Structure formats: C-alpha cells, structure tokens
Amino acid sequence: MRGKLHPVLAVVWSLSLLVACTGRPDTLEEIQARGILYIGLDPSYPPFEALGPEGELFGLDVDLGRELAGRLAVEPSFVLVGYDGLYDALAVGRTDLLISALAVEPGRTEDVAYSTSYFDAGLVLVVPSNRMQELAGMRDLDGRTVAVEYATEADAEARRWSRRLGDLTVLPLPTADDALAAVLGGTADAALVDGISARLYTREQPDLTLSPELVTSQPYAVVVRAEDRSLLRAVNAALEQMAGERRLEAMLERWL
After folding, report:
1. CB of 141 within 8 A of CB of 161?
2. Mind listing the pLDDT tens digit for each residue in 187-232?
C-alpha cells in the first residue's frame, strides 16, 4: 500500500493536474521543477527580517519562508530587495512570492494576490494586567486616560473614540514605548499602540497585558502575482496547517 501524500503536497499535486489539463504555464509547477522557492524580502525590519553581524538572515518572516518552502518540498532562496522595490521584483519574476511584513493593500489586488494573514499589526489596547477585567476594550475608557504616539494612526483613532465616548482623555507622547511606559508608571490608564510594539514591550513587562480584541486591523500576508492562483492555494494550505499545528503561534512567540 502506498504511503499518503503530505497534505500540502497533495494540494500541489492536484493543482498540477489542473494546470496540465488547461495547458497554462504555472509558477507552482516551475518551483517544483527547479526545487527552489525564491522569496523576496527587505532585511531591515526586525523582528520580521534582518541581517546579523555575519550577514545571516533572521526573523519571523525568514522562519516562515523556510517553513513554507519545506512544506512545498523545495529549498528556500531569499532575494534581498529594498522595501520600495519588493512589488516590482515580484512583477518581473525575480521572486516567486514576497514575505516581508507586507500589509494587505486592496488597491493592489489587480496585480497581486494576498494569502490568509499570518499576523495582524493593527492597533491594540495595552492595560495593567491587574485591570484587564475592568479595562477590556475602548468602551471601558470613558472617564480614563489613554496614551498614544503623537501624530500616528493610534492618535487619530483615540481622538475618534474620545468624541464618541465624551470623556476620554488622549495623552500624546513621542513614541509608542513612551505611551506604554506611561501605563506602567500610572500616568495613563491604557495605551493604544500597534500590535508589534505592544507584543515586544509586554514580553519584558509582565505587569502589562494586551486586550483580547484588536481595535483596528492591519493583516500581514504572503504576496504572489495575481495569476499564480495555484501557488496561492498551496501557500494558504500550508498556513492553515501551520496554524492547526500551532507552528505559527510558536513563531510569533519566538519573535514577538
């Protein structure tokens, strides 16, 4: 009796049959034939992607790229591209896909397709751990003070909530870390910051915790060319498996 195909490989095999029937060239087939997955990223955004002192790549997106390649039974090859050139590199075929802390941009979907999200960097409320039940969301901040980074999306969002609630004081500060420190020091009841700053800061500060619900959403996703639907399906199948196996959670816990 033949052994069962790995679930992701089963998806790849099925999609390859579909391509064979239609006669269309397919990036997934090419990747399988060459045995290499070319992954574009800009290595200047730790903890998602960065270069170490010896030039070694590290970060969440690097781990994710290696894991995806492994589940497609090919080797990863990272193509280093400046942030402004990432989408161009994908368009001209320098890369098969992009994994570089890229937020979903609906205006680009004529040219590219986005995978299911592997991380959401949207705004989140951070509060003292011993007040989590009392301050579970923005609606609980009426009569309170929320710290934000000045002139950012968090600042604008907090001011919208201030108009909605009527008695929410917004405390603008120079950086997201300053806003979080204000909560730690008791100057503010909560801080509204992006999900990355929140997770990194609270790793070192157990006295602070994240509210369970995002205030806004900014999903990060793997990016492929719009026509590469079979590759997109294979990537989504791999991400779904990684989530089910808690591999994504483990990666997030390692880096964020």
Report:
1. yes
2. 999 999 999 999 999 999 999 999 988 999 999 999 999 999 999 9
Show the CA angle centred on residue 39, arms to residues 8 and 86, nearest 5°: 135
Residue 23 confidence (pLDDT) above 70: no
CATH number (3.30.565.10, 3.40.190.10, 3.40.640.10, 2.40.160.20) of 7-119+220-255 reads 3.40.190.10
The answer to which of 11-25, 56-70, 85-99, 242-256 has the lowest mean pLDDT is 11-25
Please answer whether residues 86 and 100 qualify as being in contact, where contact means their C-beta atoms are separated by less than 8 angstroms: yes
| Residue whose entry in the numeric block shows the structure tokens 């320098």 | 94
103/85 Cα distance (integer angstroms):
15
Sheet strands (E) in 32-95:
36-41, 44-45, 49-51, 57-58, 75-80
pTM of the model: 0.87
Check if the beta carbon of residue 153 is closer than 8 Å to that of residue 216: yes
Domain segments of the chain as ranges: 7-119+220-255, 123-214
Q: How far, in Å, CA of 205 to CA of 163, rounded?
A: 31
CATH architecture of 123-214: 3-Layer(aba) Sandwich (3.40)
In three-state form (DSSP H/G/I as H, E/B as E, the rest C), the secondary structure along 72-87 is: CCCEEEEEECCHHHHH
Residue in 4, 7, 30, 9 with CA at minimum distance from that of residue 19 = 30
The candidate with the shortest Cα–Cα distance to 77, out of 94, 54, 91, is 94
| Arithmetic mean of pLDDT over the chain | 92
